[in-house]
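Re: [help] complex structure
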Amino acid sequence: MIEVQSLTKNYGAVRAVDDLSFRVEPGRVTGFLGPNGSGKSTTMRMILGLDRQDAGTATIAGRPYGDHRYPLHEVGALLESKAVHPSRMAVNHLRWLAASNGLPQRRVDEVLELTGIEKVARRRAKAYSLGMAQRLGVAAALIGDPGVLLLDEPVNGLDPEGILWIRTLMRALADEGRTVLVSSHLMSEMAVTADHVLVIGKGRLIADTSVKELVAGAAGGSLRLVSPDATELRRLLTADGATVSLEPDGALRVTGLTGPQVGELARQHQLAIYELSIQQASLEEAFMELTKDSVEFNSPVTRNNERISA
Amino acid sequence: MTTATPPVMTVSNATIWRSFAHAEWIKLRTVRSTMYTLLAAAVIAIGICAIACQHLVSDLSGATIPLKGEFLVNPTDPNRSLVGTIVAQLAIGALGVLVVTSEYATGMIRASLCAMPQRLRWISAKFAVFTAVALVVGQVLTFTSFGIGQAILHIRHVGLSLGDPGALRIVVASGLYIALVGIMGAALGLIVKHTAGALVSLIAILFVLPGIISGAFSEPLQGHIMRFLPQNVGEQSITIARMSDHFSTWAGIALMVGYVAVLIAIGSALLRRRDA
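Output below.
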C-alpha cells in the first residue's frame, strides 16, 4: 500500500505538486493519469525519496521510503528505461542491484528469465532497443520480489507486443496481491490496464475513482445524427432545447435530447435520418473533460474545438 | 508473492554498509572505461619515468669519473623515476570524477538511490571502495615506476634502492598523493555533478591555480601561498630533500587529506539536500 498525504512540491515559483493525497491499494492496478507536466513523475520521485517534498508525507507499507533498510525487498520502481550505465552489461546492472540489497545472485537469473532477456543479458545496455531496455527496467524493479511496484510510463515507445507484455505482467502482479501504481498520459491505455485511476492535473487530484465510474460520470452521452436535411434538423433541434454542433464529417452531435425524441421530431417534419446513434463518451473525452482546465499548454487547435462544441 | 521478509528488518547497519560497498565494487569493475583509464595511467606514468631515467643515463654516458648517485642525482630535484606522477594524477583524478558524475550523466543515480536510499551511507560506501582502489593503484604505480626507473639509472650506477635515505618515503608518499588526487576528483564530481565541470575544476586546482598565483603575487608572499597548493605537495612528495616554499612531505599529504575531507563534507551535504 502506498499512502500520500498532503504532498506538496515547488520548483521555484511553480507549484508542481499541490496538496496531493491518495492511497494506492494492493491487489489492483491503479492508473496514475494526467497530462504531461501534471506532476505524475515528481510525485513518484517523492514517494521514492528521490525528490524532497516541501510539505506532506509519502509512505510505502507504512514507512517513508528512506526508512526501508533494504527497500528493493518491498518496492520496485521503473522510473525510466535509461537509468542504466550504457557500457555496463545488463547482467552486471542487475548484479549490483542484487548485491546492494543483500539479494542472492540467483535472483538475477530469475528476473532475466521472467522478463525474457536472458539471451541478451551479456550485451551492453547501450546496444539495447527501447523494448529491451524497458524489460531490463522491469527486471530491475522485480529483483527483490517486492509487494509494491511503481511504474512510470512503462509503455512509452514500446511496440504492440511489448505493450501487451507489460499489460499482462501488471495484471498478473496485481492478481498476486501486489500494489501496482502505473503512470500514463494515455487514458486509452489505462482503460484496458487499470482497475482504478487517480487523475491529476497541475499537481492536484482531480479524480480518484474506478475506470467504470469515470466513463459513466463523464460528460453525458450524446447522439450522432446523419441526415441529408441536417441544416433544417439543426434548427428544429435547437428550437427544442438541444445543443447541436457540427462534426467534421458533416454529422450533427446532439446533446440534451434522447434518441426517440430526435426520431419523433424528424418524423413530424418528414425529414430523413440515415444514422442516429448514441455516443458513449470515450475515456479519452472523459479525461480531456476532466483535465481541460489543467493542461499546461493549451494549443489554439484544442481551444477552437472547445469553442465549436460549446 | 513473498510478503514480509523479517530478516530484512533486522539486518545491522554494518551489514547494509557492506552490501552497498559490494554493489559499488561491482559497479566500478563492470565498466570498461575504468580499466582503460587505469591502464592508461599506468602506461603513461611508468613510460614517462622510464624515458626520464633513460634520458639521464644517456646524459651521463660521456662521463668518465666513477659515478655515485648522490652527486649526479640531485636530491633536491624531483626524482626522475617518479615524475610520471604528475601525469598519472590526472588519469586517476579523471577516473574519480567519472565514478561519481557517470551516476548523474546516465540517470543511474536514481537506480542507486532507490536501491540505497540512505544517502550518506551510500556515498561513504562508494568513496570507501574508490579510495581502496586508488590507494592500491597509487602504490602499484609508484613502486613499479621507481623499480623500473632506478633499474635504468643503475646502468650508470646512479640508481637508488628502497633502502636509501628518503627513497621509501617518496615512493609511498607519491602513491598516496596520486590516490588523494583521485579522491579529490570524486569529491568534485559529487559537488559539481557534471563530468566536464568537475574535470575542469580539478585541472584548474592542479595546474591553473599555480600559474595564477605566481602571476598575481610576488615573493615572498608567493611562496607562502604556493606551499598550500596540491602541485607543491605533489612536487615534494617525489623529492628526497626538503624543497623551499614547500611543506614537508607528510605535512603536505596531511594538508591534501584535509582538502579532500572538506570537499567530501561539502559534497555529502549537497547530496543530502538535493533532488536526485
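Residues 15-61+78-273 of chain B form one domain.
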